[in-house]
């Protein structure tokens, strides 16, 4: 698995597929979190939203690195276990998101004027990880493994992202953002945010299983 992740990282760096999602994340962070004041939960909701959009794009880019012949070679090299190749791609994106999470955690503190507590930082981690997992899940389901035509994949990804962001009360993304925008006390949000994190992990597991099933039938 480590070798597959290293291979995926090397391919991403060589093809520079990470640049557009990275620039999008930086741009959203600059627009949404600069010169903020007051309680930190709304600022971390903005950071999580930026990571949600960027992780979806990054996942779709990573999942489309190899064309079908090259992917077949990679699967054979991995012992014929296509699930390992899929999990390596997800692991690569998740590790990349962890780096972005660190930036999203401290950039608002640097550019704004906030009173920071340990609960605020923990909430920021939970919120960003929740959105990263959901973004990765959408990116996996809307990848080339499921949609042969990239136009259809883009439309599906936009529809799922829009639903996750704007359907009122929908867990985990909209529900989490609603709580963070209306409750300034981070301590009260830790338990609900933890529950949303668990939901996002289940969504990723379900979407990964569905993608593996569809890809397996095609291969």
Q: How would you sum up this structure, described in words?
A:
- There is one protein chain.
- With 219 residues, the chain is an all-alpha fold.
- The chain has one domain (2-218).
- 81% of the residues lie in helices and 0% in strands.
- It has nine helices and no strands.
- Helix 1 packs across helix 5, helix 2 runs parallel beside helix 5 (82-111) and helix 3 runs antiparallel to helix 8.
- The two termini are 21 Å apart.
Characteristics of this structure?
single chain, elongated, 219 residues, mainly alpha, 0% strand, 81% helix
User: What average pLDDT do the residues reach?
Assistant: 91
Poorly predicted ranges (pLDDT <50, ≥5 residues)? none
Order of helices and strands: HHHHHHHHH
In terms of quaternary structure, the protein is single chain
Please give the largest β-sheet.
none
> What is the molecular shape?
elongated
Number of helices: 9
Instruction: Quickly count the domains.
Output: 1
Distance between the termini: 21 Å
Structural class: mainly alpha
The helix content is over 70%
Rg over C-alpha atoms, rounded to the nearest angstrom:
18 Å
Percentage of residues in DSSP E strands: under 5%
What's the total count of β strands?
Answer: 0
């Amino acid at each position: 698995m480590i070798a597959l992740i290293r291979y995926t990282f090397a391919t991403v760096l060589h093809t520079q597929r990470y640049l557009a999602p990275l620039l999008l994340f930086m741009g959203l962070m600059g627009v949404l979190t600069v010169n903020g004041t007051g309680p930190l939960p709304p600022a971390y909701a903005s950071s999580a939203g930026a990571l949600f959009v960027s992780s979806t794009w990054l996942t779709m880019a990573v999942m489309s690195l190899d064309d079908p012949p090259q992917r077949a070679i990679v699967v054979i090299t991995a012992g014929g276990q296509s699930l390992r190749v899929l999990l390596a791609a997800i692991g690569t994106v998740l590790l990349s998101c962890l780096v972005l999470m660190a930036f999203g955690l401290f950039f608002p503190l640097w550019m704004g004027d906030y009173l920071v507590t340990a609960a605020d930082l923990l909430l920021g981690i939970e919120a960003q990880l929740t959105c990263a997992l959901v973004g990765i899940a959408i990116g996996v389901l809307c990848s080339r493994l499921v949609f042969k035509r990239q136009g259809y994949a883009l439309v599906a990804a936009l529809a799922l992202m829009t639903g996750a962001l704007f359907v009122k009360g929908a867990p985990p993304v909209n529900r989490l953002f609603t709580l963070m925008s209306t409750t300034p006390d981070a301590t009260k949000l830790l338990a609900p945010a933890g529950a949303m994190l668990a939901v996002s992990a289940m969504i990723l597991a379900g979407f990964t299983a569905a993608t593996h099933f569809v890809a397996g039938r095609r291969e």
